[in-house]
Amino acid sequence: MYDLILKNISRFITLTPEEEQYFISILKSKKLKKKQFLLQEGDITRHEYFVNKGCLRTYTIDEKGQEHIIQFAIEDWWTGDMYNFLTQKPARYTIDAIEDSELLCLEKNALEELYIKIPKFEKFFRHLLQNAFIAGQSRIIDMISLSADDRYCNFVTQYPSMEKRLPKKQIASYLGIKPESLSRLRSNWLKKMKRA
Amino acid sequence: MYDLILKNISRFITLTPEEEQYFISILKSKKLKKKQFLLQEGDITRHEYFVNKGCLRTYTIDEKGQEHIIQFAIEDWWTGDMYNFLTQKPARYTIDAIEDSELLCLEKNALEELYIKIPKFEKFFRHLLQNAFIAGQSRIIDMISLSADDRYCNFVTQYPSMEKRLPKKQIASYLGIKPESLSRLRSNWLKKMKRA
Q1: Which of A99, B12, B74, B93 has the greatest number of C-beta atoms within 10 Å?
Q2: CA distance A129 to A86
Q3: pTM of the predicted model as reported, rounded to 2 decimal places
Q4: Cβ count near A59 (within 10 Å)
Q5: Residue A126 is nearest to which of B125, B136, B140, comparing CB atoms?
């Protein structure tokens, strides 16, 4: 149950067996069925989440009722609403499960205590945030400077397993295009791959 | 010269006078005249930068030669290409000065050594990254879910001093709209403010 998260952490810091035990002791597990909510816009959450199994999406709903997906999270990814978690202001996003999912939850106070007891977790979360920040910047660049064709191509190249796994409607929402355009983008991309 | 950066750091960690001295000793200063480059797409940088004075913009140029602004940075902000800095792969952005600017530069090796000598800087940069990540997510939401009118309104509300200071063309590029639309958005916003 904890193999994946410990491997995830070992990418940036090395824990002693005692530290691993302590870390595991503060985690709580949570199961979500497909379509169940982890967090709804306006909630106040006190947790960050590690995906052990499944797939979730973070999204917002505009005034016209249109969903806009900010992020997907599959196994070995962290998710949550950082803004909400840090400021304890109402969440700006909704997070729900696209597949039956299993999560490990890290509570805010437990995390603050973890930073004090095992300060190298500062380093771990600094690295995690660096990568998340870089990914966010890439997404911004893609959105302001790329055509729908190029955005689709980047998505498939960066997240090949997600493209197979996610409903087309969700991918379209993430890329900011109409679902009916997706098959055209996919066919353009396949043609491009053949030429390459 | 170091007052602003020390105040910036004191928001998240407390340094002893000796630690302050050590930190200051590893900083280098750099001046840029308006329109001078700090970093060009393709360069490999080994620095993160703190803005002591002035204003810079981070942008990318698409295949049609169109500039897309990712971020502005004014006094008391950090800037740089995190991806480039961390991976030492060629920069994906260009950064130049919109006004005559004064920067403090933190070199990659010096920063790695700083983390070892004064580990609480892990905490400082974790906080800085948390805020940058949240700002990036807000920008993504704004771009996928808001109208140009609402994007303009958010920008003016969040960064009132920047709106007065920046050339209209730069604001339009940041918001992903045509410069000629900006006066219409501004007039809509003023009407909205009057009604409020």
Answers
A1: B93
A2: 13
A3: 0.84
A4: 22
A5: B125
